[in-house]
């Protein structure tokens, strides 16, 4: 596990403990090997489909409609499996958030998430420079990999409450490895105090 300079500059001690607790939660839950294994499944289905289509088209005079149909079905299945893997990944993020809340308190975990969200909301250029498709996105507490941060960002309890009320796009959510911050904050706020 590593902590970026941006996070060190931005987070208070209890927020940093919450983020580290979150990441340790991933380790305790064995999320890396589980998600790595699950992440291979859509690729297997996709490339099986592509291979079946190529085999079906190998004989130009008598293409195999059955092989082509099987290939198309497998490609569709690969996208469905990818959505299921992303859904499972989002669930694992909620579990890791619970570990962060146990480590430093739910308020610290909520503030840390809100600060990260606020940084990206205030810095659209950070969004533009973060790769949209990256195998590394799942390794971060937030689904963006830009490691810069602003040490002057602070978050008030009212800002956290406002963030919890934000509407989120269902399409953005199902295509993401991480749940939207407003949903994560709502789940954390519903936790009973330790």
From TrEMBL:
User: Which cofactor does the UniProt annotation name?
Assistant: Zn(2+)
Q: Which UniProt keywords apply?
A: Cell membrane, Hydrolase, Membrane, Metal-binding, Metalloprotease, Protease, Stress response, Transmembrane, Transmembrane helix, Zinc
Q: Biological process GO annotation list?
A: proteolysis
Q: Where are the transmembrane segments?
A: 34-55, 67-88
**What is the UniProt remark on how the cofactor binds and its stoichiometry?**
Binds 1 zinc ion per subunit.
Keyword Thylakoid found: no
Q: Give the Peptidase M48 domain ranges.
A: 1-190
Q: Name one GO molecular function term.
A: metalloendopeptidase activity
For this protein, the record's InterPro entries field holds: HtpX_protease (IPR050083), Peptidase_M48 (IPR001915)
Q: Belongs to which family?
A: Belongs to the peptidase M48 family.
UniProt protein name: Possible heat shock protein, htpX homolog part 2, authentic frameshift
